[in-house]
Amino acid sequence: MPTITINGKKIEAPENATILETARENGIFIPTLCHNDGLAPYGGCRLCVVEIAQGGKTTVETSCTYPIEEGLVVKTDTERIKRARRVIIGLLMDRSPKPIVIQDLASEYGIMERPTRFSIENEHCIRCGLCVRACREIVQARAISFAGMGFERKVTTPFNESSSDCIGCGTCEFICPTRVIDMRDLPETQECTPGDHEVIGPVRSLDNWNTEFKVKVCKECGNPFYPAQPLEKFRQAQNLQPEFFDTCPSCRVTPHVDEELCVGCMGCAVNCPIGAIQMKEKDEEQRANIYREHCTGCHYCVDKCVVGAIKLEE
Amino acid sequence: MFDYDVIVVGCGPAGLMAVGELKKRGVNVLGIDMKIRLDKNFRTASGFFMDDQEFNGEYIRPEPMGDKTRLHYEKCGFTIDYPAPMEGIHHSHMVSNSVIPYTITIKKNPIYHIFNPTTWLANLYKMAMQYNATFMTKTLVTKVKEIPSGVEVTIRQDGKMSKLVCRKLLACDGLQSRIARELGFNRTRGSMGIGPSIEYEMVGIECPFPRGDLYIFGEKMIGQRGQIFMVPSPRGQDAYRVETAAMLPAIRNYEIIEFFTKKSPFAHWFKNAKVVEKSGAVVELITPIRVPYRGNILIVSDAAAFAEVLYQGATACGYMAAKAAEKELQGQKGFDDYTQWWIKSMEWNVNPKRMGDYTKRFLFGRLLGTDTMDMLFELASKHPLVAEEAKAGVYDFGAVVVNHLVSLPGVPPEIIEKLIFLRDADMGLMAAQLAKEAQKQKK
């Protein structure tokens, strides 16, 4: 394992790690806006710059994209770095002064909002690209992307039209650090028009991407809980049974096995519609074991246990 | 590209036999099962052995050889050794609320022999291990996918999913076969009901009746609707397998067996009894799959059967499936041969009426009421059914009982009418109808 020095502290780090990961692992704070542990390094916001000394030369590099090497000497808090960050935050303040994350950073680095002569469009988006990358890397839907250049650069769907690739999962809304993405979950309701009314919902609408999705209703409690389309996508990706998402997470009670009563006859396991029950060894006997992550909460097994060993309550 | 030539899913009597046979013939085969070990029976099995008579197209000739029994499967043409003597059972009793037993006695040849399912499995396992067979235990097959000239099997072991690829797949995963269900074989099958069962194997039972199986029903005996079977167990002269059969929810079975052994008029039999083994099963009576194969997948034994083919039938199916798979690997139509044998041999394939006959012996109490049965049993106790030789088998048992009851003096004509209706009713037709409706709905 290579050894590097961060702020005078000698640190052993695993190979292929980046400086940012290593620093965070060891409790050294480096500010970032565009980094997320679940996504590949991007280097978009440039806030994570650090000073790297190697072979008598000192350079300023983005720590999130810089893989560690043996003998690197890294400084995260020098005056040069602070100055660089001030420039970046100042530019961000000029472009997007409203988001709280930006204002917090600005007050930390002592930057005031500068008056501008022009009105700013889309001032909440900081172009960190988290939504675009999450849509591509995690959801694998590739529904949104950057469009335009320079001051006009923005995140949008192809040709600003309603995107058929969007599955309405809401990952972009969740990951956005400035809450610029407008997602609304509407319950079943009526829209009144003069002389008539129309039933709408339960529906999820993502106004930024001009899309609307039917929301699945739980068969147990009757409450809408999540758009049907992403559930279907997850179901296929995870090889789950068709009925897995018929029940909402709150209604999905995974039964548990009383191992004292269980006789290991496998009556539950062969009857489980999705194969969530397997056998485990206990005192040279076998006992049923329910995999919570696969259980759909159909409680088919509770009905089938001849000794009443499968119960719903603890 | 292929991990194995043949994968056998489910290693009960059929699966173990198939793996052993294939390995013996030099085929690269893997057995997968979700049990923790393969040489033990965990599922309720009555342990009776219909030999010395034609049963499901097979004639098994037992040959006692001191401390073991050699079993000759005459039609399939193979022989296996059961490593213990097999006790012959000559009596069969039926008991209702009045506690008067209705007894059938066959003097000369036994009605059936009894064996221990665990010994049977351990024996098959040992035979397979002689040829260094490979097994995966605690593994569940979650998905089976047909790929060009093979089958892709998704398995889960210790919570981890992985994939195996084989040329041929034998699904020996029993009555509620996941593979048959996943592949859509069950869509055209008609269900005649689900009946969970629990079994206590007990020693030290003081049963005053001559050693034989008991079929017990009636509210006083078991507390609610349902049945109890007591089948003699080879563990000793005072050992029996006490089994229940009731409807859902399955917990009823537990209530029934507890009531029978603790509160019924026969509770005193169980004063000194000890439970040796507990097991359970959920039995579903569904019409058989007539053509049990598709592409490279063969559904073997109970997985494609109506009700059960018993250990003896499963072993024969395992043998035939192994032969079929070997032929298939050589490029011949082995699965076709198996299907021919399957259709010709299994009695409910030859004649669907047999499905109904199989269930009739459970219907006496339901159709006639326990009071009528008590009356009939009392009459019969004066004229017991004792025969020198009878080869009734499980399917004709109901008819034999009806014929005897009808012949008793003093049975009211309306009861005779009901009994004959029960004997001649064609429940197989009903099952076939059910299957047809299921097919229609599918369309």
Task: Give an overview of the whole structure.
- The complex is a heterodimer of chains A (314) and B (443).
- Chain A is flat and about 75 Å long.
- Chain A contains 8 helices and 17 strands.
- Chain A is α+β, with helices and mostly antiparallel strands and 314 residues long.
- The longest helix of chain A has 17 residues.
- Chain B contains 14 helices and 23 strands.
- In chain B, strands 1, 2, 12, 13, 14, 15, 21 and 22 form an 8-stranded mixed beta sheet that branches. In chain B, strands 20-16-19-18-17-9-10-23 form an 8-stranded mixed beta sheet.
- In chain B, a hairpin with a 2-residue loop joins strand 14 and strand 15.
- In chain B, helix 1 runs parallel beside helix 2 and helix 9 crosses helix 14.
- Chain B is globular and about 70 Å long.
- At the A-B interface, helix 7, strand 15 and helix 8 of A face strand 13, strand 16, helix 5 and strand 20 of B.
